[in-house]
Automatic annotation (TrEMBL):
Belongs to the YajC family. It is a single-pass membrane protein. Pfam families: YajC. It comes from Wenxinia marina DSM 24838. Keywords: Cell membrane, Membrane, Protein transport, Translocation, Transmembrane, Transmembrane helix, Transport. The keyword Transmembrane applies. The SecYEG-SecDF-YajC-YidC holo-translocon (HTL) protein secretase/insertase is a supercomplex required for protein secretion, insertion of proteins into membranes, and assembly of membrane protein complexes. While the SecYEG complex is essential for assembly of a number of proteins and complexes, the SecDF-YajC-YidC subcomplex facilitates these functions. GO terms for cellular component: plasma membrane. Part of the SecDF-YidC-YajC translocase complex. The SecDF-YidC-YajC translocase forms a supercomplex with SecYEG, called the holo-translocon (HTL). It is found in: Cell membrane. This is Sec translocon accessory complex subunit YajC.
């Protein structure tokens, strides 16, 4: 019984750490992955380096082309996009 009483504070500390640190971080990571996965042509984005530009081409699962200024296009790794400033509307299908 004495050993169990000494473990209770340790278990409580781990539970508090889980709910205050680990769980919110996992939720934030999932939100970022969803945002990056939903990037499409025409979205205006801010990279982690502070560059603001418009997505001109989605190359593959890992890279996008971002136009920083007229005629200046750079390849960017998707995961470095920090924020989507404005989303474009999806193209309407002509059915």
């Amino acid at each position: 019984m004495q050993g169990l009483e000494s473990l209770i504070p340790l278990i409580l500390i781990f539970a508090i750490m889980y709910f205050l640190l680990i769980r919110p971080q996992q939720r934030k990571l999932k939100e970022h992955q969803a945002m990056v996965g939903a990037l499409r042509r025409g979205d205006q984005v801010i990279t982690q380096g502070g560059l603001i530009g418009k997505v001109t081409k989605v190359r593959d699962d890992n890279e996008i082309d971002v136009e920083l200024a007229p005629g200046v296009v750079v390849r960017v790794v998707r995961s470095t996009v920090a924020q989507v400033v404005s989303k474009t509307e999806p193209a309407k299908s002509s059915t």
